[in-house]
Amino acid sequence: MIRATRIAVLAVAAAGALAGLAGGAVVYFGWYDVSATSPHTMAVHYLMDTAMARSVKARAAEVQAPDLNGEARIQNGARLYRTHCVQCHGAPGIAPQPYALGLNPAPAALVATARTRPAAEIFWITQQGIKMTGMPAWQYRLTDDQIWDVVAFLRVLPLLSPADYRDRDDGLPPAEPTPVAPGSLRIGDAAAGKKALQQYLCVTCHAIPGVTGAWNHVGPSLAGMADRPYIAGVMVNTPENLQRWLREPGAVKAGTAMPDVGVSEQDARDIAQFLNTLSDDHR
């Protein structure tokens, strides 16, 4: 019995090793087609959909939805949807923009989303985003209340005909960013700043210790940032100055290649707190 079990374990281990070698060969020799014009196989689509559904269900279980029936909330959700969502997801009678048509996997049509997902799951997906898709984490660009407004609008979207959607959309002013209430800002959080560095695409230009991202860096490494005497060579390196640099690089140094990516005041605090942990001792 023990011998048979040992043989079975070795067989499974050998099969796993062979599968790993085969997968490595597919990647190393370029046999896997990464082009967006080559769709995923049905098996890959099923695996991704199942993984997403189970992950979202587990993580959204504790989310409590507020009252989503107010017309003001639905109306603001419609404005936000038109400003931020319709470009990729479309709407009744409205096609996505050309750049969204080539995404792989394709952005979901949200007309029936509220019929298939609870409000808490829609909120979580919108707030957190979905990796390996084009869906961003909107928590860095919208408040929780605004995200719930979008959820409220998505609940009525399945009831709208193309004419209804156009009637509701006509004359709506653009959605305006919600100002941060006085006293709602907290002290910087290094863990939150580490996440925010990815969300503002800092890792596409800079090598940042402890933060994974693209390797084609065009800006300086941020290793040892806490020990540098100056920021961008023009401003004393203090937490307050670092936050200003993150939010207004062009105002700090004219002609800088560092773009203004709309970092919020809270996210600037968090990012500065994380960067101030990057001392020369931790390179």
Description:
The protein is built from 13 helices and 2 strands. The chain is globular, with a radius of gyration of 23 Å. Helix 11 (about 240-245) crosses helix 13. It is mainly alpha-helical and about 280 residues long. The model has no long low-confidence stretch (mean pLDDT about 90). About 20% of the residues are buried. Strands 1-2 form a two-stranded antiparallel sheet. The longest helix is centred in the first third of the chain and has 27 residues, at about 1-30.
Write the layout of secondary structure elements.
Blueprint: H1 2-28, H2 42-59, H3 71-84, H4 86-89, H5 98-101, H6 113-116, H7 119-128, H8 144-156, H9 162-169, H10 190-199, E1 230-231, E2 235-236, H11 239-247, H12 249-252, H13 265-275
Antiparallel strand pairs: 1-2
Helix pairs in contact: 3-8, 7-8, 10-13, 11-13
Total DSSP E strands:
2
Residues in β-strands, percent: under 5%
Helix content: 40-55%
Described by the principal axes of the CA atoms, the overall outline is globular
Q: Over the alpha carbons, how many angstroms does the gyration radius reach?
A: 23 Å
User: Which strand order do you get reading across the main beta sheet?
Assistant: 1-2
Query: Roughly how many Å apart are the termini?
Result: 53 Å
Helix/strand-derived class? Answer: mainly alpha
Largest sheet: 2 strands, antiparallel
What is the H/E string? Answer: HHHHHHHHHHEEHHH
Low-pLDDT regions = none
Number of helices: 13
What's the pLDDT, averaged over the residues?
Answer: 88
